[in-house]
Design brief:
- The structure is a single chain.
- This protein is of the alpha/beta class.
- The protein has one domain (about 10-240): Rossmann fold (3-Layer(aba) Sandwich), CATH 3.40.50.720.
- The chain is about 45% helix and about 15% strand.
- The protein contains eight helices and seven strands, in the order E-H-E-H-E-H-E-H-E-H-E-H-H-H-E.
- The chain has helices at about 20-30, 40-55, 70-80, 105-130, 155-175, 190-200, 205-210, 220-230; strands spanning about 10, 35-40, 60, 85-90, 135-140, 180-185, 240-245.
- It has a seven-stranded parallel sheet with strand order 3-2-1-4-5-6-7, with helices on both faces.
- Strand 4, helix 4 (about 105-130) and strand 5 form a beta-alpha-beta unit.
- Helix 1 (about 20-30) crosses helix 8 and helix 3 (about 70-80) runs parallel beside helix 4.
- It is globular.
- The N and C termini lie far apart (about 40 Å).
Amino acid sequence: MELRLDGQVAVITGSSMGIGKAIARTYGLAGARVVVNSRDSTRAQAAADELRAGGIDAFPVAADLARAADVARLFAAVADQWGQIDILVNNAGTSMIAPSERLSLTDWQRTVDVNLTGAFLCAQEAARRMIPRGRGVIINISSILGEIGLPQRAAYCATKHGLNGLTKVLATEWAVHGIRVHSINPAYIATPMDVGDQSSGDYTPADIERRTPLGRYGTADEVANAALFLASDASSYMTGSRVDVDGGWLAYGGW
């Protein structure tokens, strides 16, 4: 089955680089009009310009999703530009690695605000526009750490577990309105965020390759392919699903 999103409007948060940018490109090539988001207006514009150069209809909106007013402004701008929202991908997120006994309240709160509260606020705004139309798809980019724990990731794991729980609730609550809600649990993906995490998290690419049954990092495009399937009609009888794009990480109980 060909996976197409022709004529649909997709909001992808945190999409100026990494997984979000790959999803925006994949959706655009499948026929969607895509909203590129970053906290930084220059980065949002640059990503949108790059997508447009590839023939994709892209619209940049800068917004800090940890701020409720910015979330409202993002969705108002999309409504003004295109008049509809068909797909939301809650991809914006931040990493936080620190010994739990030294994790500051400021760092804890920022992680919660971006990774969990921001996703909830975006889902609310999207659903308010999807419910009257009787259709829509919301995809939360979670993590394998939404299913398991890892030392020094208290804030990150808590928010990703929360995001997977939120997925289950919204899926069952909004199914009656024709809205499907999913989460994707990526393992270690080759992105700029991972490069930054290697020093603070005290691991190397060799550690990840050894621990992953498929023996390598995943790519942002591999996550984007899963996101395309979940957004398309090919997954029309799926909701509340948590799809692991992890190279077998969660299935493997060894060391």
